[in-house]
Amino acid sequence: MRKIGVLGGMGPEATILFQQRLLKAVRAQDDQDHIPLLIDMNPQVPSRLAYVLDQTVGAPDPGPVLGDMAKRLDRWGAEALAMPCNTAHLFAEVIQRKTALPFFNMVKLSVETALAKSKAGDVIGILASPALRKTQLFERYFQASERTVIWPEDDTKMVQAIRKIKTSGDTAEARSILLDASSELTRRGANLQLVACSEFSMIQTSHDPSAAMIDTLDVLAEAVARFALDARGPQRGV
After folding, report:
1. Complete domains list, the chain, with CATH
2. Per-residue pLDDT for 234 more than 90?
3. DSSP string across 194-235
4. What percent of the chain has pLDDT over 70?
5. What average pLDDT does this structure show over 91-106?
């Protein structure tokens, strides 16, 4: 069984949630059946939101810290890397330049899942950090797919919900914001939606029940489980 290195702490509770999802993805009969994890739980990674959305105030770049974490996990003996934070995938190329280990790109994997569950002409809604909307990271992977990607109109509300979850966990206010955003996306034609923020994964049931949902954290956990339990050798470019 392969050891998986986890770039964690973004935020800490989201990393713990990823561990819980990974536990559920494994049919274990005993402790030894579970996947060995090497976790760099580093909540000191500079704010991804601040760096992308508030660059005018000179917010520090998270990239170098993430690169150092990847190298550290490599030295510790990880055989592949996972990072349960969608927004941090803006720095995926930095991480991949620092190590030859396979890296599970949860954004790319989630888009592939959405494409498999939709058809040309469909509208896909994204419930995620406005930093991802601004940088169009998801759109890069949906490019040429003949799908239309839409986001909630009120970026301020989405940031408010993320920060509320980080400070107070599962709250009625955060759930209300996410439900309203999901319902808005449905009204605009998105019958398939991605829960693409690990904080939102903590309240994933707060969505329009008429829409089909893909939680990117589940996609990542399932991909990691398949890889870790596979008897074949590691492959680059997961």
Report:
1. 4-105+219-230 (3.40.50.1860), 106-216 (3.40.50.1860)
2. no
3. EEESHHHHTTTT-S-TTSEEEEHHHHHHHHHHHHHH-SSPP-
4. 95
5. 97
